[in-house]
Amino acid sequence: MQKEQFSRIGYVLAVAGSAVGLGAIWKFPYVVGENGGSAFVMLYILICCLVAIPVFLAELSIGKLSESDSVNAFRKLAFKNKKFWGYVGGLTMVTAAVIASYYLVIIGWVFKYLTLSFTSLPKNIESSKDYFLEFLTKDSLGQFVFFTLAFATCLLILSRGVKSGIEKISVWMMPALFLMLLFMLFYSCTMDGFIKAAQFLLVPDFSKITLASFFSALGLAFFTMSLGMAVIITYSASLSDDANLFRSTISVVGINILIAIIAGLVIFTFVFEFDAEPSQGVGLVFMSLPTLFANLGFTGNILAIMFFTALSFAALTSAISIIEPFVFFLIREFDISRAKSLAIVGGGIFALGILCIFANIEGVGDKYMVFGKDFFSFLDFTAEKILLPLGGIGGAIFAGYIIKKEALYTLFSPYMTDFMFDVWYILVRYVSPIFVLAIMINMLFFS
């Protein structure tokens, strides 16, 4: 089987696209808003350095050394208990597919609001809330149409393979995303709310930091870096041999943080411009922002189109990255075509996505509750609070204790000093697993 490889820039933009996704533009602003702003941003960046980067490099090493899918990567590199470690790799792959099923539903919501931006946005917060809730709980047909559009777009991109599909779309979408956000940032600079947004995000108030903030920053860093879901392992298996592994990692982390902060500045400028509340939770993008855009008239429609287009680009690059690991595994494990692999994986994701849509529909979702949660919430809870942390711990422990240190040193020494390697090795063996375990325990028992 001919091996497809990412170029250096293709790898960085594809992985950055995965990391940015809905995490940096949708989740980052509302989590920052709930946790008091700038001090939390600093805490998030610190956690990225202490936890996310070490785990990212651990997963990168697994993918690059094995040049295989997530299941066989663990099997190939383990010197004993190969079957067990294969299950760990399989867990990360299944986690990604589970997340993809409800992720595509949310992308459908983004597509819906993109079309709405061309016509009429709700002009006050109450009508905006009513509109979103009506769409979420009653419009099963509308959700199905937009979910199917998101699903078909992702499969079309994935059907083209690594070079012609994933890399090509990432190399085009990521710069476009950045330019649109940059334009919106420049426009935001002309508004009175920009100064308040900059102070909220960039001037720290450490009195806002609590133990809950610490765990929120830890979870956000983990989620926004696409860790524990086989993405980094799978993409790194197709990374060209001349790529600077450390520089590529820092580039991905830097792009992720930069786009998150730009998105935060843009969103909070509009929030403060209209004296709205920054700590609005998950409804910030789908309930509050459309109203704020509507108050700007025709200019607001243009900005809304740009914002939801940017969010669509970010979400799509992320979605294709979390579907690819399972597809990549089936192609290699069973020697089948990409089209057949996509049909198998896509069929499962599509079925779960439909169940997620109807989980929110009045009079339907309560018919198949799981452990007291609607099906959508159950998948989200299971993936974020159980499967992702387990996958992250598995990758860190595997790189820190199972892969031979000499092999890791040979891989990274061209790109790191001995001191940098030693620091990373200590972090990945001792600090990262404990921190990730702390996330899991906190979210399961104390949140």
Automatic annotation (TrEMBL):
Its main location: membrane. InterPro entries: Na/ntran_symport, SNS_sf, YocR/YhdH-like. The chain crosses the membrane at residues 9-28, 40-63, 84-111, 141-159, 171-195, 215-237, 249-272, 278-298, 305-331, 343-365, 386-403, 423-446. This is Sodium-dependent transporter. One of its GO terms (cellular component) is membrane. The keyword Repeat does not apply. NCBIfam families: Na_transp (NF037979). It is found in: Membrane. It comes from Campylobacter californiensis. The keyword Transmembrane applies. It comes from the Bacteria. Pfam families: SNF. Keywords: Membrane, Transmembrane, Transmembrane helix, Transport. It is a multi-pass membrane protein.
